Amino acid sequence: MKICVVGLGLLGGSFSLGLRALNGDYHVIGVDKDEEHARQALDLGIADELAGFEEGVSQCDVVVLATPVDELVKQARASLDIIREDAVVFDLGSTKSQICAAVADHPRRGRFLAAHPIAGTEDSGPRAAFAELLPGKMIILCDHDLTDNSALESVVDLLQKLEMRVEHMPSAAHDMHIAYVSHLSHISSFALGATVLEKEKNENNIFIMAGSGFDSTVRLAKSSPDMWTPIFEQNRENISEAIGKYIEQLQAFKQMLDSDNGKAMHRFMKETNDIRRVLKGD
Fold first, then answer.
1. Phi, psi dihedrals of residue 20, rounded to the nearest 5°
2. What is the CB neighbour count within 10 angstroms for residue 65?
3. Which of 17, 31, 82, 144 could form an SS bridge with 131, CB 3.0 to 4.6 Å?
4. SS3 98
5. Distance between CA atoms of 175 and 87, rounded to whole angstroms?
6. Sheet holding 49-50, edge to edge
7. Which candidate, 253, 250, 249, 229, places its Cα nearest to that of 239?
8. Nearest alpha carbon to residue 31 among 171, 102, 126, 159
9. Which DSSP category does 164 fall into?
10. What does the pLDDT look like over 43-55, one tens digit per residue?
11. Do the bridges between strand 88-91 and strand 27-31 make them parallel or antiparallel, or are there none, so unpaired?
């Protein structure tokens, strides 16, 4: 099977490495506009060969789009224009509504599938990719009823070979929920990092006092602005609503603190402990 991976960074690279670890009959053609990243991907075994966008996409059975979401919107339509008759295109972007809207009227809409793997790290580029990133993780397929059965089955087969857990969700619902459980987390991390950097002009104090709690909370602030800016732009309305709700909670906690209401703070934290049960799926 010939697979074209467009975007050879963390997600695209990990998808390729995960498949190649299965020792299946996969030939990966890598496409990346960053020439250094492309060379790294070749050296790291992410791709068997490199090609330009049209050359790579047009000759493969499966096309995986793993670029920033602003590029995905254009690449999805461009891919559908030139793929082989029986090929399928799917993306790995963090927002789904705009890309689904971009291909909605395309004559070959049925050969496209919108997907979002719930996986990642704060690192980026080919050197950040590793074969174990995706196996065992959740992947959400959006508006799958608009995808041809044969195309859907071929993608799901690959995902199941990677032992990914497949769920389905409408694209609009996906973008609303992901604003709260992913995008807001990244914004909170960036805001915390900015707050500390503004307050602690002496960087040595940060190094001395930063413990595991701070490190885990601010970890996402190390993420690539090139990737996250278009995500925030595409999901602007949902994220704005999520930030508003988050600010309300912060203001409520500040009021408890300012009024020295320890009982209210304790009750607030106790009730919020229920997130453990939610995350365990109990």
1. -65, -25
2. 29
3. 17
4. helix
5. 27
6. 49-50, 27-31, 2-6, 62-65, 88-91, 112-117, 138-142, 165-169
7. 229
8. 126
9. P
10. 999 999 999 999 9
11. unpaired
Q: State the Cα–Cα distance between residues 60 and 58, nearest whole angstrom.
A: 6
CATH node for 2-169: 3.40.50.720
pTM assigned to the model? 0.88
- Residue 201 corresponds to which tokens in the numbers above? 């002009």
Tokens of 229: 């800016």
**Alpha-carbon gap, residue 111 to 85, rounded angstroms:** 9
Q: Say if residue 215's pLDDT is above 80.
A: no
Of how many residues is the chain composed?
282
Residue ranges of alpha helices (H) inside the chain are 10-20, 35-43, 53-58, 69-82, 97-103, 149-161, 171-178, 184-199, 203-209, 212-218, 225-234, 236-258, 262-272, 275-280
Q: What residue segments make up the domains of the chain, in order of their start?
A: 2-169, 174-280
- Looking at domain 174-280, its CATH superfamily turns out to be 6-phosphogluconate dehydrogenase C-terminal like domain (1.10.3660.10)
The percent of residues above 70 in pLDDT, for the chain, comes to 93
CB 102 within 8 A of CB 171: no
* Contact present, 72 and 231 (Cβ < 8 Å): no
The first and second tokens of residue 95, run together, are 């927002």
Structure tokens at 96: 């789904």
Note the pLDDT of residue 221. Answer: 83
Residue pair 186/220 in contact by the 8 Å Cβ criterion: yes
Helix axes 171-178, 236-258, angle to 10 degrees: 30
Task: Decide: 42 and 30 in contact? Cβ < 8 Å.
Answer: yes
Instruction: Name every residue whose Cβ is closer than 8 Å to that of residue 83 and which is 6 or more positions away in sequence.
Output: 57, 58, 60, 63, 89, 108, 111
116: which DSSP letter?
E
